[in-house]
Design a protein that fits this description.
With about 150 residues, the chain is mostly helical. Helix content is about 85%, strand content about 0%.
Protein backbone atom coordinates (compact mmCIF):
# COMPACT_ATOMS: atom_id res chain seq x y z
CA UNK A 1 0.00 0.00 0.00
CA UNK A 2 2.86 2.41 0.78
CA UNK A 3 4.12 1.87 -2.78
CA UNK A 4 0.91 3.49 -4.05
CA UNK A 5 0.30 6.09 -1.32
CA UNK A 6 3.84 7.52 -1.15
CA UNK A 7 4.10 8.92 -4.69
CA UNK A 8 0.48 10.09 -4.81
CA UNK A 9 0.71 11.90 -1.47
CA UNK A 10 4.11 13.33 -2.39
CA UNK A 11 2.95 14.72 -5.72
CA UNK A 12 -0.24 16.06 -4.12
CA UNK A 13 1.67 17.79 -1.28
CA UNK A 14 4.29 19.23 -3.63
CA UNK A 15 1.55 20.40 -5.99
CA UNK A 16 -0.30 22.15 -3.15
CA UNK A 17 2.87 23.92 -2.04
CA UNK A 18 3.50 24.98 -5.64
CA UNK A 19 -0.07 26.32 -5.90
CA UNK A 20 0.38 28.28 -2.65
CA UNK A 21 3.71 29.69 -3.85
CA UNK A 22 2.58 30.54 -7.38
CA UNK A 23 -0.73 32.05 -6.27
CA UNK A 24 1.19 34.24 -3.83
CA UNK A 25 3.64 35.43 -6.49
CA UNK A 26 0.87 36.12 -8.99
CA UNK A 27 -1.45 37.91 -6.60
CA UNK A 28 1.39 39.94 -5.05
CA UNK A 29 2.58 41.13 -8.46
CA UNK A 30 -0.74 41.49 -10.30
CA UNK A 31 -3.51 41.57 -7.71
CA UNK A 32 -5.36 44.09 -5.63
CA UNK A 33 -5.31 44.17 -1.85
CA UNK A 34 -8.68 42.39 -1.87
CA UNK A 35 -7.28 39.60 -4.05
CA UNK A 36 -4.16 39.33 -1.88
CA UNK A 37 -6.40 39.04 1.18
CA UNK A 38 -8.46 36.31 -0.48
CA UNK A 39 -5.35 34.24 -1.25
CA UNK A 40 -3.81 34.84 2.18
CA UNK A 41 -7.03 33.80 3.92
CA UNK A 42 -7.41 30.68 1.74
CA UNK A 43 -3.91 29.25 2.19
CA UNK A 44 -4.30 28.26 5.87
CA UNK A 45 -7.44 26.32 4.90
CA UNK A 46 -5.24 24.45 2.42
CA UNK A 47 -3.26 23.15 5.40
CA UNK A 48 -6.20 20.83 6.07
CA UNK A 49 -5.15 19.00 2.91
CA UNK A 50 -1.41 19.67 3.01
CA UNK A 51 -0.57 18.44 6.51
CA UNK A 52 -2.13 14.98 6.06
CA UNK A 53 -0.53 14.67 2.61
CA UNK A 54 2.91 15.50 4.06
CA UNK A 55 2.34 13.10 6.95
CA UNK A 56 1.33 10.33 4.54
CA UNK A 57 4.36 11.04 2.36
CA UNK A 58 6.74 11.00 5.32
CA UNK A 59 5.22 7.95 6.95
CA UNK A 60 5.11 5.86 3.81
CA UNK A 61 8.60 7.03 2.86
CA UNK A 62 9.89 5.85 6.21
CA UNK A 63 8.18 2.48 5.71
CA UNK A 64 9.52 2.16 2.17
CA UNK A 65 13.10 2.98 3.23
CA UNK A 66 13.21 -0.26 5.27
CA UNK A 67 15.89 1.15 7.53
CA UNK A 68 18.25 2.12 4.71
CA UNK A 69 20.28 5.25 5.38
CA UNK A 70 22.70 5.45 2.46
CA UNK A 71 22.57 6.38 -1.21
CA UNK A 72 19.47 8.03 -2.58
CA UNK A 73 17.43 7.11 0.51
CA UNK A 74 20.01 8.85 2.68
CA UNK A 75 19.85 11.98 0.54
CA UNK A 76 16.08 12.05 0.78
CA UNK A 77 16.24 11.55 4.54
CA UNK A 78 18.80 14.35 4.97
CA UNK A 79 16.53 16.79 3.12
CA UNK A 80 13.44 16.00 5.20
CA UNK A 81 14.44 17.80 8.43
CA UNK A 82 15.16 20.95 6.43
CA UNK A 83 11.79 20.72 4.67
CA UNK A 84 9.97 20.09 7.96
CA UNK A 85 11.78 22.85 9.87
CA UNK A 86 11.20 25.31 7.04
CA UNK A 87 7.49 24.50 7.12
CA UNK A 88 7.07 24.50 10.89
CA UNK A 89 9.27 27.50 11.71
CA UNK A 90 8.74 29.77 8.69
CA UNK A 91 5.98 28.76 6.29
CA UNK A 92 3.07 27.86 8.56
CA UNK A 93 3.58 30.76 11.00
CA UNK A 94 4.02 33.15 8.06
CA UNK A 95 0.79 31.95 6.43
CA UNK A 96 -1.11 32.47 9.67
CA UNK A 97 0.50 35.91 10.08
CA UNK A 98 -0.51 36.84 6.52
CA UNK A 99 -4.09 35.70 7.07
CA UNK A 100 -4.26 37.85 10.21
CA UNK A 101 -2.67 40.89 8.52
CA UNK A 102 -4.73 40.51 5.33
CA UNK A 103 -7.96 40.14 7.28
CA UNK A 104 -7.11 43.43 9.02
CA UNK A 105 -6.21 45.04 5.69
CA UNK A 106 -2.66 45.71 6.86
CA UNK A 107 -0.33 45.50 3.88
CA UNK A 108 2.61 47.27 5.45
CA UNK A 109 6.39 46.95 5.25
CA UNK A 110 6.44 44.09 7.77
CA UNK A 111 3.94 42.18 5.63
CA UNK A 112 6.13 42.46 2.55
CA UNK A 113 9.41 41.73 4.37
CA UNK A 114 7.92 38.55 5.85
CA UNK A 115 6.50 37.81 2.39
CA UNK A 116 9.99 37.88 0.88
CA UNK A 117 11.28 35.49 3.56
CA UNK A 118 8.29 33.19 3.04
CA UNK A 119 8.75 33.10 -0.73
CA UNK A 120 12.42 32.22 -0.32
CA UNK A 121 11.63 29.46 2.20
CA UNK A 122 8.87 28.16 -0.07
CA UNK A 123 11.23 28.08 -3.04
CA UNK A 124 13.77 26.14 -0.96
CA UNK A 125 11.11 23.62 0.06
CA UNK A 126 9.86 23.21 -3.49
CA UNK A 127 13.42 22.62 -4.68
CA UNK A 128 14.13 20.05 -1.96
CA UNK A 129 10.82 18.27 -2.59
CA UNK A 130 11.56 18.18 -6.33
CA UNK A 131 14.99 16.68 -5.59
CA UNK A 132 13.35 14.06 -3.38
CA UNK A 133 10.86 13.28 -6.13
CA UNK A 134 13.68 12.95 -8.66
CA UNK A 135 15.59 10.61 -6.37
CA UNK A 136 12.44 8.58 -5.72
CA UNK A 137 11.93 8.19 -9.46
CA UNK A 138 15.53 7.06 -9.80
CA UNK A 139 15.09 4.55 -7.01
CA UNK A 140 12.09 3.03 -8.77
CA UNK A 141 13.95 3.12 -12.11
CA UNK A 142 11.35 5.45 -13.64
CA UNK A 143 14.19 7.88 -14.23
CA UNK A 144 17.70 6.86 -15.26
CA UNK A 145 20.40 6.90 -12.63
CA UNK A 146 23.08 9.49 -13.16
CA UNK A 147 26.71 8.53 -12.58
CA UNK A 148 26.72 10.81 -9.50
CA UNK A 149 23.69 9.25 -7.81
CA UNK A 150 24.91 5.64 -7.87
Amino acid sequence: MSKLIHPIAGVFATGLIAVFWLSTVLVETLGTHAQIATVKLAIPWGFLLLVPALAATGGTGFIRSRGARGGLVGRKLRRMPIIAANGAIILIPAALFFAWKADAGEFDTVFFVVQAVELLAGAVNLTLLALNMRDGLRMTRRLPMSARSR
